[in-house]
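Subject: mismatched residue count in predicted assembly?

I count 1388 residues in my input, but I want to confirm that the predicted structure covers every chain. Input:
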Amino acid sequence: MLIVMKPDATEADISRVIGVIEHLGYRGHAMPGESRTAIGVTGNKGAVDPTHFENLPGVADAIRVTKPYKLISNDLRPGRSSIKVGNAFIGDGSLAMIAGPCAVESVDQVFKVAEIVAASGAKFFRGGAFKPRTSPYAFQGKGEDGLKILAEVRDQFGLNIVTEAMDERGVDLVVKYGDCIQIGARNMQNYSLLKYVGQTKTPVLLKRGLSATLDELLLAAEYIMSEGNYDVILCERGIRTFADHARNTLDISIVPAIRRLSHLPIIIDPSHASGHNYMVEPLARAGVAVGADGLIIEVHPCPQEALCDGAQALTPEQYVGLNSQLATLHDALNVRPGAVEMSEALA
Amino acid sequence: MLIVMKPDATEADISRVIGVIEHLGYRGHAMPGESRTAIGVTGNKGAVDPTHFENLPGVADAIRVTKPYKLISNDLRPGRSSIKVGNAFIGDGSLAMIAGPCAVESVDQVFKVAEIVAASGAKFFRGGAFKPRTSPYAFQGKGEDGLKILAEVRDQFGLNIVTEAMDERGVDLVVKYGDCIQIGARNMQNYSLLKYVGQTKTPVLLKRGLSATLDELLLAAEYIMSEGNYDVILCERGIRTFADHARNTLDISIVPAIRRLSHLPIIIDPSHASGHNYMVEPLARAGVAVGADGLIIEVHPCPQEALCDGAQALTPEQYVGLNSQLATLHDALNVRPGAVEMSEALA
Amino acid sequence: MLIVMKPDATEADISRVIGVIEHLGYRGHAMPGESRTAIGVTGNKGAVDPTHFENLPGVADAIRVTKPYKLISNDLRPGRSSIKVGNAFIGDGSLAMIAGPCAVESVDQVFKVAEIVAASGAKFFRGGAFKPRTSPYAFQGKGEDGLKILAEVRDQFGLNIVTEAMDERGVDLVVKYGDCIQIGARNMQNYSLLKYVGQTKTPVLLKRGLSATLDELLLAAEYIMSEGNYDVILCERGIRTFADHARNTLDISIVPAIRRLSHLPIIIDPSHASGHNYMVEPLARAGVAVGADGLIIEVHPCPQEALCDGAQALTPEQYVGLNSQLATLHDALNVRPGAVEMSEALA
Amino acid sequence: MLIVMKPDATEADISRVIGVIEHLGYRGHAMPGESRTAIGVTGNKGAVDPTHFENLPGVADAIRVTKPYKLISNDLRPGRSSIKVGNAFIGDGSLAMIAGPCAVESVDQVFKVAEIVAASGAKFFRGGAFKPRTSPYAFQGKGEDGLKILAEVRDQFGLNIVTEAMDERGVDLVVKYGDCIQIGARNMQNYSLLKYVGQTKTPVLLKRGLSATLDELLLAAEYIMSEGNYDVILCERGIRTFADHARNTLDISIVPAIRRLSHLPIIIDPSHASGHNYMVEPLARAGVAVGADGLIIEVHPCPQEALCDGAQALTPEQYVGLNSQLATLHDALNVRPGAVEMSEALA
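Triage response: the counts match. Full output below for your records.
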């Protein structure tokens, strides 16, 4: 059920509708748009009777929703969402660059990269303190010590920190030290974790699972949003196919497909998608050209010594070159003007 | 590192080797075989120096392991493992039948199925109290109340309970009420959860992820075992491919592939693999014929009213017919004699 | 358009209906069933007006067909088809064994295998004279000389010859020397070739393409049948997926899926599906258990010397052992009684 | 075997080496590069003895080739190939635009599109006279009549004609009426057809098969080249995966992967890859950004009336808008200077 308010509906009208929704035992999600507010209803098992709402003041329409998703949908929020991560935005029409090493290894390693990333004009820094590794015997990350190093990066370089959490303890720590909780591809359908991050106020970068369909990705975002955290950024990082020339197959067509259905920002990860240093640059260019809101890229001061995924990391020099190339490309494409900031609109 | 003991090595010899391993800061996993015991070493970052062990009493050989897995491996344990689940075994040469509804819905529904399952001679009962659903708005399971119903099934019918946990709270509850913790396909690479169940003493049914390779499945089992819980049963439940005539593609070839590498039991789930009632019977027959240690099958007293996955559930009548067919087939194939029980061997 | 005749319709009634179809510029395909004959209409661009037929003598019904296939369909022919290949049948309820080497290499090699295959009771012999190889520099087969060797096998051992053709010249030669034209997976959508074999009177073994959906496979058969050759046997030989433990993923679920839609026989190729000798036996057992009409299996007197695909070929000893195992299994499953022979029914 | 000539080797030296190769029963393929000529040897079953060549005048080196391909390889021809198609080039550093309807339907339809395509500055026109359709009952193309219409397009608008052939008769007709033979995805491993087009002098546009690996695509090109036709243009048109939001998954990562291995040009087909009108523009931009040599795009004067694949065709207005966007993008990326023309270099 989606309740569309009239353009001149007051805050009191909106509160009254939400009150009725809650009285019925459901949950109401107000989503202000440019000209009017829509209110999503979740928590209902079957159909909701629209007559509860149709005659309330300020209500324009009460629409039954047949699609499996509501909160991610363009129906609810026709514009595009801009998500505030720390002190900067993703989805506001600029090209968000999120760069840094795969794993936090040492202060020295992290600071070397952060200096270059900050100088390049990027506003976001990535780096893993908890590493999901296929083998239990591989390097598992530095944990809270790693997060502390990342927090220092923010203090010194003004970069906003994007870092992965793999469980509830990890989420609590990322909320404490970081600016954006990354949910990795292998946890995209870890519904308990999705609900837990949905109860925080920290933005979430949600990576597409290795074999997730578009619907599954959007419904994973819906899990987070249905708990009240609307600040979700989607990320395409390659899917698993038969093709063996890259580690995964970067599926750029998901960018226009998401645009048709959802107001959420979508970024591209050319590093994990390819697994090869030499592919990162052309795939990053393609990501900008297809219209992504940003890129997340691995940079390591010394890729051949990286404790994980060194083969795909760019050197600092390569990153600087790529960054200026992408800026030119983004300008040439002359993308749409800035979107409305979602979390502010909801305040 | 794998340390192979001589056939006449004493318990004291084995304890001494484990003591040295622990003194070096690693972890030792003793795996008695029919004629000799092997001891796996985990926790080492790089290569372990074999000279620490070669001259200890009772040691036959110290072998460097280059494969990414150790504890699941035939190298460590040449026979096949038989896992005790409640009061019965999986992997002992008999055909383990695990049957029941997808989700626990009510006492009535569960008991109707349990009566038939018990009468058919099956020793294991399945049923989900926590349901991983693609949509946050779909039925999510009855939680602890559902587990209590399952515990009653065990008391009344003597069936051993196999049921899914999706997070740490769920694991604690399944340990309390059930006999085997099921880890679902979507959580196969939820490493935090794998480690957590690895710290319990309850057997684990580990389902293959939708796009998991053989190595990834085996390494997920290795995660559990490296924490000290060796009672892992693998489960093939269909993989995601382009084919659209079944919900997933049942990959029976993984059964012989696992036999070559691992001592762990492997069962087949024809219900989730196909998603269609009419396919369950032929796929179940194929699962027995390919040599699986058991089957997990959905049965519902009234499939068209099921709250989840009704399309694939068998009616009780269908299940009874299938069960007798599979028994005939299993006899005709005249499978190998019983394996050694693993958890007892380790006692 | 499908015209269903009354049970007591005469041959003259059927001829009259076909005459009207041809007069309208279409093509009529009479398919006698156990109790009545159905006549498929092909060649129409849009809908055909049923009033042309409804009042003709002997006509029970004229049904519009909305599915993309007609001739392969159970609607047209409710029973199962039994296809005569040389002097034996595939699809008559017996288990058809088609065995032999991947490629014809020499008289000696072929005769050694043929002797064992014939002694085992199999009625069909396979062997390629034209080999579709991924590399232009790999062994391409012995061509017509190879076919002559196969013809000698038929003369000496009474085995019916199944062998691949890759182009029109090859089809002409297989028609001349062999009993069944195999269309390989890579040519499953080579529509010109499908039409060409559809114009012969020789049965066709049509292998599923590496990434063919069920519909695409059935429509490839429809291409052949729409030209007038109704003797098509389908073959599942593994599909291409991300899984890397076998060369392809054997998709046994296509067997029940085909049974629901089509009267055509379906066999399984465990050799190409797996690519590994050790997997052939368990996958062959699964193929019988899932209900396939037969198996096609590679046997080589000396697999390690084979010019192609040696890794998957069984030794003659292995084949003999497998064959007796499969016979026991087929008996235990006690499959349906014999189907009506299709090509005879159409005579 | 690859024979590398000295920079100062004469034509007579090269001819002598080829004479020796042919005397040994093999085939020599001279490939002049910027500074030196390399000669590929094909037709050998096993290793070729390098001593036959090492001491001949003008020979710098004779190298054993262990990769399965030779003629497509950068080892043989370090620069990039530029292929002359009619009176224009593909692979010369410009962005080759190949536009037109999926199928030739009528003079009127074709001319409307051709006028716009020519006015936009494109040099190549596409349109199918033979259509590979999944169903035998779908529109199969206008055949030779369609090709005659395309030949008129060349005469009137100066556009070079790229059109598909599905069999040998079709190849003969495309050689007669067209400028470039397209081999469709379903025929990528139709080796008889590949050899046949390899014996013509007409350039070939080779589309990647739906489940073809990089190696299989390159080896399909090698089939054509090993017959003497070196003018092969590769085309990525989407692969078959589990993803369902687009008809196929456009695998742009194959562009950099091919650049590392091969001198052949590679173009992108965003129309077939996506199957949706709204995705063509963003995927086309991505194709340019990733570094493809050109694009092949469907344009129809009235997409909703198209006899095949209307859903993905651009309107003429959309095409004109896209074309100018791509030109800006290609300029911004400032691609490498022109390559050497391959067919001229071999003259």
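The first helix of chain B runs from residue 11 to 23. Marking this ticket as 'not a bug'.
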